[in-house]
Each structure stands twice: as structure tokens, then as C-alpha cells.
Task: structure prediction
Amino acid sequence: MSNSTHGVERAVHGALDYGELERLNLRPWEVLDFSVNANPYGPSPRVREAVANAAIDRYPDRECLELRRAIIDYEVAAGSLPLGSIVCGNGAAELIWAIARAYLKPGLKTAIIGPTFGEYRVASLTAGATVVEFQAQATEGFQLDIAAVTACIRREQPSLVWLCNPNNPTGTWLGRQDVLELAETCQRTGAMFVVDEAYCCADEPLMPTSRRATTLSSSAAK
Ligand SMILES: Cc1ncc(COP(=O)(O)O)c(C=O)c1O
Result:
């Protein structure tokens, strides 16, 4: 497969390259893959049961109605959300690309709070946007200086800000107060705020869903 999309270098993360393993004369189970974050115990029995009972002899509901209703029921504690506020994708990566396609275009700027997951940059550049990246420092244990991040957002005036929380690959995470401060800054500067909570294991997501914020929640595999 080509390593670039529209001239933008692909983000390489997760999963083994079986062609590479063949060339190295290795088998997949002989390699410890530190680039994935999957449950070593496998999926829950309830997930196995749901998959086994899924009707694979017909196309699924393209509007994912049942799933979106279940998500709304689960999220009720976070306030009353309209059904239309939930969008389902085949994994968070598909949604990251869909957001970039829907909200970015040439002439727009996006801000990434890094170092972080590579798909935000590639999806944004492929949509034609320019990217500015705030860099947390290794010497600070990659802890974010929220005042510096908000100053960067105010200075750069991006149309969209990507936050990965908890962050991949640094493992740092922002508490609710810090996330709300970033959300407020984005609201004041007119930026859409995208929070990727793929690794949020808490029962309660850190980011309350609001009009100008988009939250990406975890997939069943993680
Ligand atoms: C931070 C982050 N967001 C999104 C994704 C993509 O998740 P999915 O497998 O649900 O597409 C990953 C996958 O590694 C990730 O690390």
C-alpha cells in the first residue's frame, strides 16, 4: 500500500505488517506488538454473544438507530442529548477523518495538542488545512501547561482544535476543569473542539457534550 494520501505521509500505528513479517521470516504470534492497546483477555462474553447473534446476512441499519438509542440511554446522566447529536463510525479513526472532511478545507487552520495520535495531522492535512501543533515537553513529563495552550489557541485562532484525552502516546490526561477551560477558550475564539476519549475508561466521560464540542468515545475492543 502507498505510504501517502494526496502527498501526505500516512500515520503508521497499531497492527503488524504481515508482509514485513514474511520478509523477516517471523510469524505474528512470535512478535510482541507494543503499538496496539487491545485487551489481552479478549472481548467480554457479552460482546462475543452480540457478535455471534448479529445478522450478517443483511445490511445493517445505516442510521445505527438502536446503537444510538442505547448510547443516549447510557449518556442520560450527562444531560438530555438529542438523538441527532450521536454519530457512529467504524472506529474512532473513521470519525476523525469524517470530522476533518466536514469541517476543514484549504485556507482553514487546525491546532493539535501534541505530541499525540498521528491521525489528526494526516486527516487535517489531507483536507487541505494548515496545522499548528502545541508541543508538551518531555522534560515536564509531557504535562500540559493549560495557560500556554489557551494562549496558543487565542494567538493562532484555529477553526478546529484536536485534544486526545487521555493522550496517546504520552499517557497524560487532563481533568474536567482543564478540559472545560480549553472548551471555553475554543468557544470564545469560535473554534470547534474535538476531544478524542478513545482511552477513557472511566464510567463518566471527562468531556460533557455541548454544541461546539465533539467527543469521540472508545470502541468495544479497548
Ligand atoms: C487516540 C486514538 N484515537 C483513535 C484511535 C482509533 O481507534 P479505532 O480503532 O476505534 O478506529 C486510536 C487507535 O489507536 C487512538 O489511539
